[in-house]
Amino acid sequence: GERPGVETGERPGVETGERPGVETGERPGVETGERSGAESGDTAKVQEGNEEPERESNGLECREAAEPVCPGKRSEAEVSVLFAGPVSRDGCCRLVCEIVKHVLYQRQQMPLPYEQLPFFTRRANEAVDGGLMPRSRRNEQSDRKKYQRALSDLDEVFQNLEAVFGLTVVPRVHILLGGSVVRPKELYEVNMERVALGHREKSLETLSCIRKLFHTLFVEDVLNELRSLPLMNMLLLVEGHRDSGIQWFRPKLNYRVPERCKKLVISLSCSPGSCSPTGEQTNHSDSSDYIWFQAPIIIKGFYA
């Protein structure tokens, strides 16, 4: 009675009650309940959380991989310039020319503003001709050629750009810096799709429009936020009607707006309540009759 109780009651109780309780109750509670719970909980957390770290890591990899591929989407900026009345075609042309000059100088592609280049060229000519700097005569001559070349190229571009505005409505103008037409480093778009065109006598004064433009550019200070770049080439493209008779600018039928670059859009528009379109509007960029034309001259940046 006792031995069986010991053998079957106590020992089994120890073997089946306590030890199993230890082996299956406590230790399993530790090993399977706590540890397995911790392990299963951890594995569950890992399994549940594996998706997020993978997504995060994949997201980081995608972001890192996307940076050199499409940096332009994250660095795109826009500046809106609102005029109080209609603007003439000549006024739009002057605004585009001033933006070209401003971009070249602010992006350090010219040592001086465009208006100061003729004066500096004359001073360089006087210094060389007068023998004031004999040791640096070669440098002076080289600088003089650079200034003269830049002035002549820009003047030719501006003259033919004026002819384009006289022949067709120009919804957009693209200024490309660096790289190629397909993949430039920087793109500056002058968007005139919301400009109401008017006759010269019924339009705003061009000087007032230029002051308004530069006031907005200086307040926004977008050009100084972009990183400085070395000397680059500048390409100019205009959008116009295919049957307008443009000759100097060359048609660029396969041109597509670059996306893999830094982009700044300067959007020009007129106040809806203070200007009335005169039948000529610039919002024809979606029409198949409007194509891109590229200037045959490449403006090369230079240092002093």
UniProtKB/TrEMBL annotation:
Region of interest: Disordered: 1-63
GO-annotated cellular components: nucleus
Bias type Basic and acidic residues, positions: 1-37
Superkingdom, natural source: Eukaryota
GO annotation terms (biological process): regulation of exit from mitosis
Segments forming a coiled coil: none
Protein name: MAD2L1-binding protein
